[in-house]
Amino acid sequence: SQKIEQNSEALNIQEGKTATLTCNYTNYSPAYLQWYRQDPGRGPVFLLLIRENEKEKRKERLKVTFDTTLKQSLFHITASQPADSATYLCALDMGRRALTFGSGTRLQVQP
Amino acid sequence: SAVISQKPSRDICQRGTSLTIQCQVDSQVTMMFWYRQQPGQSLTLIATANQGSEATYESGFVIDKFPISRPNLTFSTLTVSNMSPEDSSIYLCSGGTGRQETQYFGPGTRLLVL
């Protein structure tokens, strides 16, 4: 069956370091992969979209890579700040009517 | 982009009753969706709200339990019917301009069923 896997364990890093989050998927070849941020008690907020023919995309301190051979996306936050602390969700189309979301990885940036 | 609002933001309901959640978008969107999110879990798609026709439900969700309306391109409602404690969850509305394009989410409705 189709599956999206994100590290369920929280990621704790020091302020100023680079956070790297992983999204792996199986049994499908999506045309897009997206990353969202979710704060407690709020709905997810769109961050970046990367297409299957793009290897990398950047937006300010954010960078996403998409390896369709490995079926993996990496999400990087450089020069991390305590305000970056949140849960980060990857999402992709799995041939269904809407996006399928991973379970998310909680990032905690320590000052 | 689109800004999405939901009402109510939270509610506590008794078993056996029903609650209708409203979702308003500030601009026209092609697609509207309803999700459920258990604490600490990911989003589970309930259904796609179709304008002027019956919603398209995902496996495990039925119209009798979760009737959905979408009378126009900017408004939708989800009703949680005959509630039980297992329905306690966060219900999220989202909108997008394409099937797999960016989705914009409302703040969610936090429901507790006693």
Any overview of this molecule?
The complex is a heterodimer of chains A (111) and B (114). By secondary structure, chain A is mainly β. Chain A is 0% helix and 57% strand. Chain A contains no helices and eleven strands. Chain A has strands at residues 3-6, 11-14, 19-26, 32-38, 45-51, 56-59, 62-67, 72-77, 86-93, 99-101, 105-110. In chain A, strands 2, 4, 5, 9, 10 and 11 form a six-stranded mixed sheet that branches. In chain A, strands 1-3-8-7-6 form a five-stranded antiparallel sheet, with no helix packed on it. Chain A is globular and about 40 Å long. Chain B is mainly β and 114 residues long. Helix content of chain B is 0%, strand content 51%. In chain B, strands 2, 4, 5, 6, 9, 10 and 11 form a seven-stranded mixed sheet that branches. In chain B, strands 1-3-8-7 form a four-stranded antiparallel sheet, with no helix packed on it. Chain B is globular, with a radius of gyration of 13 Å. The model of chain B has no long low-confidence stretch (mean pLDDT 92).
Number of helices of chain A: 0
Morphology of chain B:
globular
Relative strand content of chain B: over 45%
How many strands appear in the DSSP assignment of chain B?
11
What is the number of E strands of chain A? 11
In terms of DSSP E residues, the strand content of chain A is: over 45%
Q: Which structural class do the helices and strands of chain A define? A: mainly beta
Largest interface: A-B, 23 and 23 residues
What does the largest sheet of chain B look like? Answer: 7 strands, mixed
The CA-CA distance between the termini of chain A, in Å, is 41 Å
By DSSP (H or I, 4+ residues per run), the number of helices of chain B equals 0
- Could you spell the SSE succession of chain B in H and E letters? EEEEEEEEEEE
Q: Tell me which oligomeric state these chains represent.
A: heterodimer
Give the structural class of chain B.
mainly beta
Taking the sheet with the most strands of chain A, its summary is: 6 strands, mixed
Portion of residues within helices of chain B: under 10%
Overall mean confidence score, pLDDT of chain B = 92
